[in-house]
Hints:
The chain is mainly alpha-helical and about 170 residues long. It has a single domain, classed as TspO/MBR protein (Ferritin), CATH 1.20.1260. Helix content is about 75%, strand content about 0%. It contains 6 helices and no strands. α1 (about 5-25) runs antiparallel to α3 (about 50-70) and α3 (about 50-70) packs antiparallel against α6. The longest helix is centred in the C-terminal third of the chain and has 27 residues, at about 130-155. It starts with a helix and ends in a 10-residue tail after the last helix.
Amino acid sequence: QGKMWAYTVGFTVLPHVGGFLGWFINRKEIPAWYEKLKKPSWCPSRKIFPFAWTVLYTGMGYASYLIWNDLGGCSSKAVVPLGLYGAQLALNWAWPPVFFGARNLKMALIDVLCLDGLAIGTVCSWYRINKVATLLMLPYLGWLAMATCLTIRIWKDNPEQKPAKSE
């Protein structure tokens, strides 16, 4: 019982680690490149993103703890539900370096579409295990839907420049 708080904190903080690293590594690309992209009128303000991701990562991290706890830790029953969660988290963390770092809009779109599938799979696998954990993931799914639509629009409205052919 004494260690349970450490597990709770660890699972809750884990998503923030990759999110923070993604921001830290790509922070200079945001004003230099992202601000110049054509974006739809409904694109959220840059100021909203840190707050939104703090709430979303905290909710999903705590939800993963609930699933882990309900399944008795790293048991064979936890492989699929936590495996899906880990896979979607990895794609979530991969998106900023692909989008901002590599400036590869097409790969960022592919990443977010795969992320959507894994996040939906995660929520579906969690439904029978813990309803609270499932509910904690719903804001994340909503945000991902908006992020996916935004990525599609940015990809469509900002054609990637082809390198000039050397003769």
